[in-house]
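Thread: Modeling a multi-component assembly for a lab meeting

Hi all, long-time lurker, first post. My supervisor asked me to bring a structural picture of a complex we are working on to next week's group meeting, and I have zero experience with this. I have the sequence lines for every component (480 residues in total). Could someone generate the structure of the whole assembly? Inputs are pasted exactly as I received them:
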Amino acid sequence: MLIAKVIGTTVATIKDQKLEGRKLLICREADETGKATGKPYVAVDTVDAGVGDLVLTAHGSSGRQTYLTKDAPVDAVIMAVIDSLQVDGEVVFRKS
Amino acid sequence: MLIAKVIGTTVATIKDQKLEGRKLLICREADETGKATGKPYVAVDTVDAGVGDLVLTAHGSSGRQTYLTKDAPVDAVIMAVIDSLQVDGEVVFRKS
Amino acid sequence: MLIAKVIGTTVATIKDQKLEGRKLLICREADETGKATGKPYVAVDTVDAGVGDLVLTAHGSSGRQTYLTKDAPVDAVIMAVIDSLQVDGEVVFRKS
Amino acid sequence: MLIAKVIGTTVATIKDQKLEGRKLLICREADETGKATGKPYVAVDTVDAGVGDLVLTAHGSSGRQTYLTKDAPVDAVIMAVIDSLQVDGEVVFRKS
Amino acid sequence: MLIAKVIGTTVATIKDQKLEGRKLLICREADETGKATGKPYVAVDTVDAGVGDLVLTAHGSSGRQTYLTKDAPVDAVIMAVIDSLQVDGEVVFRKS
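Re: Modeling a multi-component assembly
Sure thing. I ran the full set together rather than chain by chain. Output:
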């Protein structure tokens, strides 16, 4: 999974019907301290995440292993909200 | 999913029969403001997208989860047309 | 799918039995004008492509969605020969 | 599979229910001598790995081929702890 | 598939039981002339390859389409040993 920061939202009226009612959040890949430095991508939210949250995203067919994304043309899903990250014994991120 | 701009079209007479009648659009990866700065790739259109549209594309086996691409040798599909993108509370893209 | 140029051929006597009789072509990723500038990889040909052709390749499990690659340890397949590419209303590549 | 060093841990209270009880470790891609120089990502531990261990991780749908990750929205799994690496006939890493 | 050079071996006592008895070889991505210039990764050998061989590797779910890797948490497999590579009509690699 990737550590990612939720940075925005997407509105799309014309879309595959299996995406109806799904929340499409813009994420940016983050490093192991939670700093968003990587590429942006869009993931379906399944854990009520919001802009500013640090999350985990699962990709590829693994993105379809949730109730909300089953059999949908979806290749990225937010499946966890990160509370804290600890690297080499030190807390480097804690959700505020 | 990737945010992408549709930049062109592909014509291919000789192709796998499951691609017959499919629209093959050239997309270029875009950033979170809709600016096309990344790599080009070809995706099957399933939402009547056109050149100039900002779209979402799903990849890998997720690209086969639509009626038009089921069981086809297709690894990228346009499954949404983006109306607007909002980043950090600000609208950064709106379809004209 | 990736736009790719077929640049060569591979000979491999010792191989998985499901690859017997398959044509393994060396491809190089190309940009949206057909210029081969990217990384090389090997794909199974399913459309009688030849060296010099500009083709489309499908990757991952999508590479196994053809009669010739079904259930084989194959992750890239040539599934179309490109006749022409049009970008922003202009023909940028035409098969000679 | 990727050679990776386990560098930390992730705590996430809100997560997909199939992740309940799973250990989410932060890994960093390593080179063939075990030096962690690449990108960080999070993988589910299935072999009782710990911070500092050099491990192998499997990705994509292959990350779901373990008892602990079956059908879960998980795209990376630690499936081996590396004892030693030998390159060109020389031992370049040995677990201490 | 990727062209890769086998550069080493991996020993891992603690591993998923489906990996018991499997040979885990360190590969390095090579270019179309067989020169190993890319990233290292570990693949399961299914064709009795050895260090120094130039091989083809299949990735993702395609890495599980062999008798030795079926249903295993394995995302890369060596499925061919390359005898020769020909680019633009010229032999650029021949197994010695």
